[in-house]
Structures are given as structure tokens and as C-alpha cells.
Design a protein that fits this description.
Sulfite Oxidase, Chain A, domain 2; five-stranded mixed sheet; mainly beta; Immunoglobulin-like; 7% helix; 251 residues
Length: 251
């Protein structure tokens, strides 16, 4: 097994065998990761390997690096932004749809021992990352049989802002339904507030499941009084969108 790190976002192409990865003892970590998928299901996984930030530093990642693509031997791939790799990430010891608690910092790892908690096994290497919030879908980035990491200085940009079925500044009767829409609804989460405060990744989530799993979980808001709704879209691979505001008058 060989892992290659390449691209114009690193000083030069670097290749490691499994033995060479295991020799990077200064970067070795054993972590428990809370997990959320697009169903959504909530769980935990265990991974032993080398810290991804440490590995990238050994490869000479450039300060202008922006996108990091992870590629499997079968061609499956996922992309994270530089910030999504190096930002604070967490694992929640108590982790469910209602709420999560017991957050502890974890770094992404390139793991050669992984599996269910307490039932790990040595396998071909796999990427594991933590979460910025308990609703963030991280399982799609668990690339198995990881063979190549491409670091680019080309930015993927930001996600587009959410749209809605009721436009900003509208006057509507009580009982009107307000539904968010987005061109990439299955790849992002829409976080929102209804009290005029600035939303963040710990705010309410509009679309807890994708359109192809449990669409009935995505329920429009029923407007019964005048409201200021603020929202943004966030997902792996691009930076979060700007916040968009909807001032709605209910008559």
C-alpha cells in the first residue's frame, strides 16, 4: 500500500508506504469520532493512525493551499477545504438527533486500524474527520482505501445562499408556509434562526435528511407572526455561504 500526497499546494510530491506512515510516531493518534450521516444516523467510530495535519506538514503544505482532495483506489473521492481540515473539530460522547454533548477536540487522521468502538481491525488506510457541530455530515469523507491526496491552491469558493418560497420583505397571511430551497440541498445543511439573531452551526437545521432518504423530515415553517429569518448553507468541500435575511410581515 502506498499513499501519495501531490498537487501545487505542497512543496513536492511525497509518497509513504504503510510502514513509513506507522513510523511517524510524533503524529500518531487514537481517536473516537462521533458520526452523522445523511439518513440521519448518529454513532461513533474508532480510528488509530497519523494526524492528517501532521502528515500534510511533513509533505510541505503551502500557505496558499485551499482545496484538499482525497481519492480511493476505486476512484471514490471527497474534497475538503484547507479550513475544514485545520479548523477545530470535535467528537461528542453523547451524540443523537435531539442534542449532543461531551465535546472533545479531535484531529483528522489517516488510519490503518479502524472500526466500531472497541472492535477495531487493521485494514487498508481510511480517512476519518471530526465534526464542527453534531449535525455536520462527516461519514461521506471517510474515504476507504485512500491512495492519493491532492492539495490545490485553487479555491472551490463558497456555497450559494439558500433561497425560500417567501421572498424578503413579503407580507403574507397567517398560516403561510415558508420553505427553504437550495440547488445543492443534498450536499449542504441549512442553519437558521427565527429571532433575528445570527445563525451558526449550532442553530436549527432545516434539512436533517437528504431528499432521497427521509424527505418528510424537511418540514416548512408555518408563519403565524411577523418574523426575521436568517440562514446560511454549509457543507464540506466549500466554505459556508453568507447569511441571508428574510423579513416577513404576517398580516
Amino acid at each position: 500500500m502506498v499513499l501519495t500526497i501531490t498537487g501545487n499546494g505542497v512543496e513536492g510530491e511525497t509518497t509513504w508506504t504503510l510502514d513509513e506512515l506507522q513510523a511517524l510516531v510524533d503524529g500518531y493518534q487514537e481517536n473516537i469520532y462521533s458520526t452523522t450521516n445523511n439518513w440521519p444516523n448518529f454513532g461513533h467510530a474508532e480510528a488509530h493512525g497519523v494526524s492528517l495535519p501532521y502528515l500534510l506538514s511533513q509533505a510541505g503544505v503551502r500557505s496558499g493551499a485551499s482545496g484538499i482532495k482525497f481519492i480511493s483506489t476505486d476512484g471514490y473521492n471527497t474534497t475538503l477545504t484547507y479550513n475544514q481540515v485545520f479548523r477545530p473539530l470535535y467528537s461528542y460522547s453523547n451524540h443523537n438527533a435531539a442534542a449532543s454533548s461531551g465535546a472533545s477536540r479531535v484531529e483528522p487522521v489517516v488510519a490503518w486500524v479502524w472500526g466500531d468502538v472497541g472492535k477495531t481491525r487493521q485494514e487498508n488506510i481510511r480517512l476519518y474527520i471530526g465534526q464542527s457541530s453534531h449535525w455536520e455530515v462527516n461519514t461521506m469523507s471517510f474515504v476507504t482505501d485512500l491512495c492519493r491526496i491532492e492539495v490545490s491552491t485553487v479555491s472551490a469558493g463558497s456555497w450559494a445562499v439558500p433561497s425560500a418560497s417567501v421572498t424578503d420583505g413579503s407580507e403574507v397571511p397567517s398560516g403561510t408556509e415558508f420553505a427553504f430551497t437550495h440547488d445543492a440541498i443534498d450536499n449542504i445543511r441549512i442553519y437558521y434562526t427565527v429571532d433575528g439573531s445570527e445563525p451558526d452551526v449550532n442553530s436549527r437545521v432545516y434539512n436533517p435528511s437528504t431528499s432521497y432518504f427521509q424527505p418528510h423530515l424537511t418540514v416548512p415553517l408555518v408563519l403565524t407572526e411577523s418574523v426575521t429569518i436568517k440562514a446560511f448553507a454549509a457543507g464540506l468541500g466549500r466554505e459556508a455561504s453568507p447569511v441571508v435575511t428574510f423579513d416577513i410581515t404576517v398580516t
